[in-house]
Amino acid sequence: MKQFYLKFFVAITFILGSEFTTVAQTQDTVWLSSLDLSKATLGWGTPGTNVSCMGHPITLDGVQYAKGFGTHANSILYIRLNKGSQRFSATIGIDDEEKLSTGTVIFSIYGARQQLWKSSILKSGEPVEKFNINVSGIDTLILLVEGTSDGISYDHADWANAYFLVSGDKPVTVNRKMEEAIVLTPKAPLTPKINGPKIYGVRPGHDFLYKIPVTGQRPMNYTVSDLPEGLKLNLNTGVISGKVSKPGRYEILLTASNKLEKSSRKFTIVVGDEIALTPPLGWNSWNCFACAIDQDKVKSAADAMINSGLADHGWSYINIDDCWMVQPESNDPVLGGKTRDDKGNMNVNKKFKDVKSLTDYVHQKGLKIGIYSGPGPKTCAGYTACYQHEEADAKQFADWGFDYLKYDWCDYERIAKDHSLPELKKPYVVMHQALDKADRDIVYSLCQYGMGDVWKWGAEVGGNCWRTTGDISDDWSSMDGIGFSQAGHEKYAGPGHWNDPDMLVVGMVGWGPELHPTRLSPNEQYTHISLWALLASPLLIGCDMTQLDEFTYGLLTNDEVLDINQDILGKQAGRLVQLENMEIWVKDLEDGSKAVGLFNRGMFSGKIVLKWSDLGITGKQTLRDVWKQEDIGVYQERFETEIPPHGVKLIRILTK
Ligand code: GLA
User: Fold this and answer.
1) Pocket of ligand 1, candidates 321, 467, 468, 511: which has the most ligand atoms within 8 Å of its Cβ, to mutate?
2) Domains along the chain?
3) Residues 6+ apart with CB under 8 A from 518
């Protein structure tokens, strides 16, 4: 890449005793945009070299800049200066491509564990800010752009005209150092332990399917007492199936035994109107395979969920995302063809040979299976969707045996008149009515990225969960921006209807044929899973389950963490404290205890104090480290701890 240098001769005057000595020192100008900006992480879009994050010329308050770094909150860029640079300067603001929007950001610069400079809150359409700061003696500089409490939407931020004055080593962008990946989750005991949700909802007369999640040495035997009429247990596999026609609340006792021990746990089956009484736990194909998904990969995912032992911790849905249908107007021999058959039923593309045999395959394992479509003529990836075929398609999904439908707005944008509430709700009501006519429990997952504050009306249009944000990616900016912007949504979540901040990005992900290990650091992954558990979010694994490493497995199989997510009260955590980069989130649990996440969103480790007075509790309290599954001790009035950068301490304050 072409380097841009400007020679500066700076006269530096030293005072030596009483004499004045003048030394001429050369300084180069190194433009920020001459560095490799692909190392930046962005909450959305692509790092722009001399362009915005959308690829347009950098334009701030009506002025176009030839040079600069176009980014999007939350954004981080690490630059190794090696003490070689003296000054850094730039003109900053929100790009005019979002002039009429409501973006708000704060720029800041860190070095030597200190904040060197911070902007005021910059808003769309407002004047720029300029700075020129001293960076001499700094080893690594960190450029940050953060969204404010309104989230990261429209936060297209530019570091325009940004350059270093350099007299020593040239600046280079670097990847940050990662901490060691330590598995905190203890190994499951060999004795039987029943895990997973404690409650399950099913509609009268509809298929019930539940595999009792149990860890422990095999072979395992299962018994269940007080099963309602219509259900039967497979004694060898622990799968309960059948149909219950009589509405009611059935308290049953699950028992699992192996040669070492016998273990029992209460389980409630609620036969009524509501399903998804706890957030769905499963897998979705998008974050790993995207359009490289095919029937064999779905089968392998189901095999892996069982063989890896994930199902023993309560994971149960195998969800196919986009790209299983025919691509309209395509001549591709695999993807093209007739989009629907003569009866109007949707066709699958040639990567999916026999859908019914696939759903049967998954069900035979005691797992459930999900499908994806949308209200537009096409899906996001350009495949056939449900527009004007909703009833037939809902029936077909049910006949095929699907248990979950993700319904993605995307191409409906062409159909909707505008983004008024009636227009936003319309397609979701239509599909809900269609699903209602189908003779099957299908978890209805709305995906429209939070438009019109969907959390306020998602339940009203029949949604069991609804995406609250745009798509997640496997970097801190994205995960942090999405996760921590969920504050305030907690009042809209509860059994049967959940806020969904998007699928998990731990393990091998990639959105296509090529997979890579998540770019989240180990601490960030603990933050991700802890926060999503506290948020009572649907947990959909987004990685290739056939390639689970020990660390990822530990993240996904901690029963005490999953219990927080699956707690039957169905409360979503809210933000209790926000002090600079430190945040405390609290979730009330059914047994009266509280799950508390102590988060450090900053780049340096720091102390955090949890005060009983903030929690509305008093006296001595026993605290438990949830990840390690061990009690920490008894504390009075407060608990103070050090949290590493981007890390978390997930604790439970136990009831006496
Ligand atoms: C949208 C959704 C993603 C995924 C893709 C599929 O971007 O938000 O989760 O389903 O569509 O094309």
Assistant:
1) 321
2) 24-174 (2.60.120.1060), 193-271 (2.60.40.10), 281-572 (3.20.20.70), 575-653 (2.60.40.1180)
3) 474, 505, 506, 507, 508, 509, 525, 543
